[in-house]
Write a structure and sequence with these properties.
335 residues; seven-stranded antiparallel beta sheet; two-stranded antiparallel ribbon
């Protein structure tokens, strides 16, 4: 039996949400492991609720929502999907060995018909390989064109780390359980001010609002990053609004949470559209509109705070074994 020299999977990634969500949706739908619109995956995984802002509004804010191994595994676990997350720092002496193993793992996954999530950056999808040319075929979601990554360059990019994820089989979780856990993940994100300690220059959850509003008021921020953060934030809140309308009958009290996010989205549409102008040279942030935008963001903060108070009430009506059961070795897993 001859060895396979390559494979190309029919996977289509489109950038609309967070890059991890977009890549995950492309991989899972192509493999028949998820059915439904992207906003449903974004909501059920809890990814839509993640909101982190750098104090200077750097564009990296959008993907700096915590330690990826933890954040992504919990998100995909809630979908009932098996996930292996492979990554690290390219400066480590062991990178070469990890790189060789990861290359084999990616090819094995592709041979099974499962594309892989890959940090380009941001996240994209590896959907094929050619053994003769020693290249992977990669989509970034921004265009329909395929990019090529040489095996020798796998994991190398302008950031100091590499990351690649492989999915497996799916188990079915009752919808009520999945929705409830997505709300609890959202609540944790909301109440955790810094997800990347010891770095405190990034604010998460409710603190992200404060970082965003303060930077817009004081100036001296990254303009491209500000637009990217604002548009990503708006997209995620639209996703949350659509998600909650879809599942609002699953849990008592969820209709009120849905109503609050609907109000949040409607209150932000106008101010945000007025603040970002399309020019031939690209998008520009209109300084004269920033006071109105900040006012709208303060109102959004109030609405989301009320929504999370309602989520707390809903969560409290059900046992939470994941957070109330302490393993016999303590709060940390055995090493």
């Amino acid at each position: 039996m001859s060895k396979r020299t390559g494979v190309i999977l029919d996977v289509r990634m489109q950038r609309e949400s967070k890059s991890f969500t977009d890549a995950l949706y492309a991989v899972l739908t192509a493999a028949g492991l998820f059915e439904g619109p992207k906003f449903l995956l974004s909501g059920l995984s809890g990814m839509a609720f993640k909101f982190t802002v750098h104090e200077k509004l750097l564009p990296m804010s959008v993907t700096a929502y915590g330690q990826w191994g933890t954040e992504h595994r919990r998100a995909v676990d809630n979908l009932g999907i098996f996930l292996v997350d492979d990554g690290g720092r390219t400066r480590h002496d062991s990178f070469g060995a990890y790189q060789r193993i990861a290359i084999d793992c990616v090819k094995q996954s592709l041979d099974r018909g499962l594309a892989c999530l890959y940090w380009i950056p941001e996240f994209g999808v590896i959907h094929g390989y050619d053994e003769d040319d020693r290249v992977f075929y990669v989509q970034d979601g921004w265009s329909g064109e395929t990019q090529y990554v040489l095996y020798d360059n796998f994991g190398l990019n302008f950031t100091p780390f590499w990351d690649c994820m492989y999915v497996g089989e799916r188990v079915m979780i009752p919808l009520q359980d999945t929705v409830l856990e997505s709300l609890r993940l959202a609540l944790e994100d909301w109440e955790t001010p810094h997800k990347t300690l010891p770095d405190s220059s990034l604010g998460s959850g409710r603190l992200a609002y404060s970082f965003l509003i303060r930077a817009l008021q004081q100036g001296g921020f990254d303009s491209y990053g500000a637009i990217y953060i604002l548009e990503s934030y708006m997209t995620s809140r639209i996703e949350i609004s659509a998600y909650l309308r879809e599942v609002q009958s699953v849990l008592p009290g969820l209709k009120e949470v849905s109503r609050l996010y609907d109000e949040l989205v409607e209150g932000l549409r106008g101010p945000l559209a007025a603040a970002i102008s399309e020019k031939n040279s690209g998008k520009l942030l209109m300084q004269v509109q920033l006071p109105s935008l900040c006012s709208a963001l303060k109102k959004a903060l109030e609405l989301e705070e009320r929504a999370m108070q309602q989520v707390t009430k809903i969560s409290g009506q059900y046992p939470d074994r994941k957070r109330s059961t302490l393993p016999r070795w303590g709060a940390h897993t055995a090493r």
